[in-house]
Amino acid sequence: MTGDRATAEPLHRGSTSASDRSVDRRQFLEAAGFTLSLTALTACTRQPVQYALPLGVMPDSFAPGKLVNYAATCNGCPAGCGLLVGVRDGRPLKMEGMPEHPLSQGGLCAVGQALPIALYDRHRLEGPLYRGRPAEPDEVDAVVREKLQKIRESGGAVRLLTGTRTSPTLSAMIENFLGQFADGRHVVVDVPSSWAIRQAHQETHGHALLPRYFFDRAQVIVSFGADFLGNWISPVEYTAAWRKNRIPTADRPEMSYHAHFEPQLTVTGSKADRRYRVTPSDYAVILAHLARELGAMALPDGTPPLDTASGMSPSDLRSLAKKLQAAHGASLVVCDSQDVFTQQLVNAINEHLGSYGKTLDVTRPSRQRLGDDAALAKLLEELAEGQVAALFVADIDLLHDLPEASRLRTALKQVDLVVSFADHLNATAKVADVVFPESHLLESWNDFQPVADLVSISQPTIRPLGKTRTLLASLAKWSGQTGDDRTLIRRHWEKYIRPTAKEPGSSFTEFWDKAVQLGFVERKVTPIPATYKAPAALTWDRKAVPEGYTVVLYTKVGMPGSRHAHNPWLQELPDPVTKVSWGNYVCMGPKTAEELGVAEGDVVELTVDGEKLELPAYVLAGQHDRVLGVALGYGCPGTERFANVGPQWLEARPTTPPGEPVGRNAAPLLNWQRNTLRCVRHGVSVRKAGRHRALAVTQLYHSLKLPESIAAYGAPDRSAVVQATTLEAFRKDPEAGKPEVHVDENLDLWPPDHPKEGHAWGLLVDLNACTGCSACVIACQSENNIPVVGWDEVRRNREMYWMRVDRYVQGDDDDLDVRVQPMMCQHCDHAPCETVCPVLATVHSEEGLNQQAYNRCVGTRYCANNCPFKVRRFNWFNYRHDDDRENLALNPDVVVRSRGVMEKCSMCIQRIEAARVEAKKEGRDIEDGDIQVACQQSCPAQAIVFGDLNDPKSRIVQLAKDSRQYRVLEEYGFRTNVGYRRIVRHREGGETGGGHHHG
Amino acid sequence: MRERVITLGLLVALFFGVLVLAKGAGEWRSPGNQQGYAPPQPIAFSHRLHAGELAIDCQFCHVAADNSRYAGIPTSDICYKCHKFVTAPYAAVAEERRKASEEKREPRPIVSEELKKLYEAMGVADPLKPVDPSSLEPIRWVRVHNLPDHVLFSHQAHVQAGVACQRCHGPVETFERMYQYETLSMGWCVHCHREVNQTGVSGRPVHASTDCAACHY
Which pTM value belongs to this model? Predict the structure, then answer.
């Protein structure tokens, strides 16, 4: 044998002859192969043993694997939206909007949707810390009580600093707790705060209050910087209300008019009928002239003239005033300025227009922002002078969210007792004597009072995962009260809430049970007798804006503050406006970027009064040339943990540079002016830092724009993908805006041999209602187990979202036309992906769905290549699922996909199947409304409708008859099952915006 | 010489290989097929006795079968409902009673070895004592029917449609120890789905989907 082979293989033997070797290569392979096959054969046996561990005792009305919804209230921000917590097998999994809730009306924003991943965060503090070391709750309680006793005796000052907490029980507890000390005070802080609105009402109405705004009652809405559809005060509530007047039909071609003034493009600005590009200091000028034009008041002495520098021409102002005047009693002016003078102008205009009592209410005010800047300023002063004996801090990270952190750090050293309630080790918690982490919302009892006449309750759906408790329970313990948070809330509700409830029930138990089940209770309240009194003549005392750029500090829709910095879903969510995920950046207009010679990703250094901030630049259309924008809530200590959040492979780059947090903290640029903490900083100088940090942007690829050089003659207009028209054109022709393309319904490559006889599922998205807020993106992520892939993978265009919100920008910067479009699998009846799959892993269902069978997919990626909508996502890796606590957030109804398979929107097939079984149980067929897909359920604007296209009575079929209905790339004959409804702008003429260039 | 050594080596390897194979030959099957799998369980529970002889309905214990994707391994308290009182086979209890009356004494409580394990899991020494919820220990039943993760099977859908449990699980009422009766392979599922679309289930016409997404999503 060997001899033959030696002659057959004379190559590369060198001096060593075959006979010198004990075993040659071939023999080794033979032996190895034989052994390997033997080993493989032995593998043909049983799977590893698995155990099934049932509960000891079956809880009442519990079924394994069954989804049960519990009512709760969201605490992602102080807006207090109604929440339905989907619990399965004792695990809270999916957050949905509560349709009955008077404020949110079934909507829920991205932040609310992302609650579960924060609950199962392994990095959350698991128990109290004493001087940085883990300690037992009893031990910590003893220490705190002892110190408090000493302070009580010595009469030292005790300060409690929290964000806005609307809880009535907590308010009473705080009062009780602080009442034990000679000098106890509660300071509420919001960054950014709405204190100026409250203060302006103090001046004009005699009460420091935040009005409740009713956007549904307004026919003309004028907003100065208030991003009420994005993140201003209560965006979900406002979106639901705003939407009501934004849906024109052929029968009733009416909609509200919405003008928006802002320095940087926001969600609200992109939905406005007319957007003006102004600086924050222009608000007062325009408002003063508007007030004069309306006749609300005389022009304050010294008001600068209205000229082009203030972003608005006198003729535009006159036409706006006319519109407002015509809608007397149905108009609303809102402003996010932190300047009391500016807000007083707003009040004067609203009063003159008869808006009070109609479109905004001060008699039953909102409590969604209670921050008091003056009280905060006083506290910081006291801290600096060493007058505070004990400081309790919740919600806010004192040393991170406020400017002058180093001075504060020194000041904190003089405080005898610093207690933090942070759930992560943030900057304040690091230096605090005691950290008693607060329980997550879903682990604890909470109550809320977001507006005067509504109280809501939130029940726990899981036991605390660590030794944590609520702020309420901690304060109770330290003030010597007994009872856990449930007892305390029950006690308060029995004594104070039930007597004022509209429906108090026959007994407290009945009332309480109903409140817990429903989640909220409406209250009778005595209206606050607040009426407008014109303030003494206002004088213009603005200082001239200093040279340099103005920086506007804002919070992103998906990142309302440092409290959420540890949430990977929110960190990865592309910002609705910039489409950048992971981190913050400096937004600047194209002109500014040109002036500075920077391109996207070039790091720039902002300098003002000795404060420096280095961040990559992002070029954003529609930005004011003298204004830069930086998001707050980034650069949080502890977010270094996300460095390796994505797949680890040879060329992987960390999501954050080694040892650095996600983004940079912009809080040092906040500044104090007239006792208010301003988010606007003037006189900032900018220079290039000479470095580059690529941004993970999801907007610039997947472009549908065909370069002119390669576009074939007669190639259709790509802007037909997201169609728009104006109200004037719509009134003349309800089909206005429809592109002139030839759609041949009869031309067909395939014989009609697959009739859809039963159901035919479809989606319809109203682009006029959709604000692009991206709540649906996180809803889909939570429902469908979509992994977080990290900065590097997003940068490589490999984010895994099944649903994205596309943003199209055209027109010039002064009159921008922004269109947003949620894009998911279009479930084409003639699907291009299906014809190219070599293994039939993607085929059509008999109900019209484009199915993806993961276990059949071999990963050729032909389908993604052939998909005209670019909605298919390939699993390049086995994404991280190694944290078994985080895995608790996975939906057991949806498979976790593994490496090498394609995936995409399934139109929530698991929900369809669940509804089918439920209907079968009741012996009926699925009815319209039984199924709500995840993206639809929580949409604050109710822009998405799911239904059966074969059911003539279904809502989707009724809506699809509308003249605004169209399908994307209809002319190609894909026969998509997802429809869209055209955008209508309340404008004159046929143009929806300025020029024609795509951005 | 060297060839012989190698041949000898291979033969020895083959011998041991066959030994290994012979040992597992009874269990040898194509990967994923678990038909006939009958692992020993922590408690020697007999379906023959409970479902066969005593004719207890399947859903008396598997309570979620008509209500959830999972039929549900019964929680310990479901067993305990009856076994609070039934502590041993009737023959053993009768024997003790007979002895007791012969010896003119009170009959001693008889607890079978298997049921002791249940009481341990419930955390009770005496079956008639109340149960302390904090002392509950789950019973580590060995899972017999285990579909791959990429299959989503709903018991509820099938029970609602009137499919008998035995159609997939076999004549469980005759099993002393539970085992997997069918292959539970995709071909086997699809075969039935096609068949019932023609024949119906228990005389009723049904529509059993053969779409991929009926089970894979």
Answer: 0.90
